[in-house]
Amino acid sequence: MTQDIIRIACIGIGATLIMDAWLVLLRRLGVPTLNFAFIGRWVGHLPRGRFFHDAIAKAQPVPGETALGWITHYAIGIAFAALLVILAGSQWPENPTALPAVLVGLGTVAAPLLVMQPAMGAGVLARKTATPLRNCLRSLVNHGVFGFGLFLAAALYQHIGG
Fold this sequence. Notes:
Order of helices and strands: HHHHHH
Keywords: Membrane, Transmembrane, Transmembrane helix
Number of helices: 6
Distance between the termini: 14 Å
Helix content: 55-70%
InterPro entries: DUF2938 (IPR021329)
Transmembrane segments: 6-26, 67-92, 98-119, 140-160
Shape: globular
Strand content: under 5%
Protein name: Permease of the major facilitator superfamily
Largest sheet: none
Structural class: mainly alpha
Organism: Metapseudomonas furukawaii (Pseudomonas furukawaii)
């Protein structure tokens, strides 16, 4: 049981690292990406009873919001890795294949498009942004990269320690 939890955590962290490397590449190419401090700000307002914001960038800053945002980002990555193992089966990490991982990764795009963006003031499917379709497609690609990262992280874990 402990070994399974460690494996899932490593897969989630690895996949999130791959997604972050992708986001760094996009930033270097001039493509805007999410500021994780805003995730921390949103999470920091939850205990205060505030779920929805008109614009998270204009919300009151929260102490430690950048660190909180990054911790939340990685915790979500681990949770999505657990979801993959639940959906693909407990044997999947021992013999990982790309298709279930990429499909789960693509499915996780529902979280930002239907929960995070509306809660942060961007609207469902980013409809309150200047370029909703572009933002949705960018999110879909980013989560596809995360899904492929789930596969790569699981394969690496199996290769070096599984």
